[in-house]
Structures are given as structure tokens and as C-alpha cells.
Amino acid sequence: MLVSKKTFLISIILTGLILLLTACSQVPAAVSTSTAAPVTPTETPSPLPTNTPTETPVPPTFTPTPRPSQTPTFTPAASPTVFQEPTARATETRATSTQTPTPIPVVATPTPPSTLNGVPYSEFILLNESVKERVKAIYEDGQKMGRDPKAFSKLGDSLIANPYFLRIFDQEDPNLGTYNLGDYAFLQGVIDYYQGSYDRYGVGIHVGLHTWSVFDPMWADKTWCNPGENLLDCEIRLNNPSLMLVLLGTNDDAPQVTFETNYDKIVRHLIEQGIVPVLFTKADRFEGQDNRNNLSIRKIAEKYQAPLLDFDKLADTLPNRGLGPDGIHLSIAPSNDYTDPQTFRYGNTVHNLATLIMLDRLHQVLVEP
């Protein structure tokens, strides 16, 4: 009975020791599990799918280039002359003639037209004597600043961003071929004088441009313009023009006072830079039938005595005011042949010809004297 109790006690003690040892052996594993740092998976960004389009700004069709320091000398267009068929030389000796030779008839230079679509120049080219004097003063200031007398630039929206605004006068157009000025051949001289400016796209052109966005650097072409530089100052720096063609207002659907304030700032800035602002009215009525933007442009032209091409008046002579199907952009003629009466029924060809007439009148004021 005693042996049996001892055996029983020993077995209990052994069992307790076994349980204690088992519990102790499991503690490190539990501690290790609770204190180990969690494993953080490495984040690898998923590659972009190959068909995801990326946003890249579309550069202008024609990139701006600084103008050369030397430019060709202006040569007026020659007057047309009659071609004389050469006379064959006789082999025998001619007797001396006592008859007075008949003088070669002089062919008179044709009188250039003084109207466009029946509208006198003076009704759409606003360049009276006081404007001429103001233009001379701005131009002379610009020459002191080193402005290029043979360069003009363009400031505007999609109405002049299209390849049909003036470009034809610098190079052949693959769609429209060459140009024929017809009775307006006297304008060839001013085409030659400003050679290189007609085809220039420049950074002053931006589709959808408003008057308020002209001085916003966000609208400037980052390829050509410096950080913080607006597109107008950028174009002035790159091209150094003496004239700036300003065609704005189609995208400005704003109160008249807002449009006037922004437009006024542009004109004043150009004058301060010694650049003659050449202002244009437009054919569309995008901002409303009250035509308030054109009214403001005329008002500012009068305020600063700036030259104004009032295309709004010429548009009255054209089918659908010279506008295409969208009612905003000008209709495109099938050719630039000004001997064809149909050419004078399209917005873009009449617009281009009127611009040449304005440039020619300015050239007479600034250079020819």
C-alpha cells in the first residue's frame, strides 16, 4: 500500500513537470510571434496600359523662327509693258531715211481700283490724317527700340490660325495653288516688302484665345516662351515686329465693359512697345446680335488713333457675311485668283485682300516717303 502511494505521487510529480516543461517550451514561440515586425509588401506601380492615350500639347502648325538681321530690299512691282516682237535684221545696207521715226507708244499704268466689292477703301480702312500722324510717332519710337521695319506679327484666335490667312502670299498652297492679284497687282510691292511675315504662324496665335488670356502665361507656348512669359511678349521677343495685326473678339462672350478693358490693355501695351497695333473688326455675331465687341473695337481705335480694318462692313457685301457653315469662321474660296469674280464672294479671300490693302496704305505712310 505504501509502495503504491509513492508510485502514485511520483507519477503526479512527473506529470506536473512534463506539463510545466511543455508550457515553457511554447512561450518563446508565442513571444516571437507577437513581437516580430510585420512584413510590408513592396509596392510596384502597375505599368500604364499600352493603349492609354497621353495628353501632349499640339504645337502650332508653323513654328516661329527669329527673323534674319538682314532682309531683302523693297522693290515696287513693275508696271506692265507691251511685249515687242523683235524685228529681223536686214542683210542689205539700208538707205538713210529722212522720215521722222515714229515714237514707241507708252503704255499707261492701269489705275488701281479704289474699291473692294464696291466699298471705297475709306469706309473700311480707317486711316485718316490724325491716325497717320499717330502711326508715324509709334513707328518712330519702335525704330529707336530696334523694331524690324519689315516684320509684322499676328495676335488672334482660330480665325487666323487656319492656313488660309495670308499664308498664300509667302508660298504656294498645296490645296489652292498660287495667287493672281488681277487688278490689285499694285499690292505685289507690299507683299515683297513684308516677305516672311505672311506665312509666319507665330506664338501670338492660339485657338480659342480671348482678350483676357493674352496676358496669362498659361496660354503661352512652353516650347518657345520663357517661364512666366505671356504669348504677346513672347511673340514680340521672337519676331521683333514693327506692326501687330490684332484679330480678337470672337471668343469673348463677356460684358462689354470687360471686353473693352482687356482689349484696351492690349492696344496700350503694343504702343508702349513701339509696335503699331492694326485692329480688325470681325464678321461673326458670336457675342450677340448687338455687335458689342465690334463697337468696342471701333471705340478703342478712335481712342488711341490706331489704324482699323473694319471688316464688319465688308462682310455685308458677302453671302452669309462671308462666314462658313459654323457661322464663325470665314468661308474658303476654291482659289486665290482675283481675276475670277467668284473669288470676291468668299470671306477668306476678301479678308486677305483687304489686309493687303491696309498694309499697303501703312507702308505708304511709314516707308515710302
What does this protein structure show overall?
With 369 residues, this protein is an alpha/beta fold. The chain has a domain at 115-366: 3-Layer(aba) Sandwich (Rossmann fold), CATH 3.40.50.1110. It contains ten helices and nine strands. Helix 7 runs parallel beside helix 8 (292-304). The protein is globular and about 135 Å long. Mean pLDDT is 79; it is low at 23-107.
List keywords for this structure.
Rossmann fold; five-stranded mixed sheet; 369 residues; 35% helix; 9 strands; alpha/beta; two-stranded antiparallel ribbon
**Dominant shape:** globular
Total number of beta strands: 9
In the sheet with the most strands, the strands line up as 3-8-7-6-4
H/E element string?
HEEHEHEHEHHEHEHEHEH
How many helical elements? 10
CATH C-level of the domain at 115-366: Alpha Beta
Mean pLDDT: 79
Largest sheet: 5 strands, mixed
Q: Would you give the CATH topology of the domain at 115-366? A: Rossmann fold
Category by helix and strand content? alpha/beta
Strand content: 5-15%
Helicity level, as a percent range? 25-40%
CATH architecture of the domain at 115-366: 3-Layer(aba) Sandwich
Q: Low-confidence runs (pLDDT<50, min 5 residues)?
A: 23-107
**Spatial separation of the terminal alpha carbons:** 147 Å
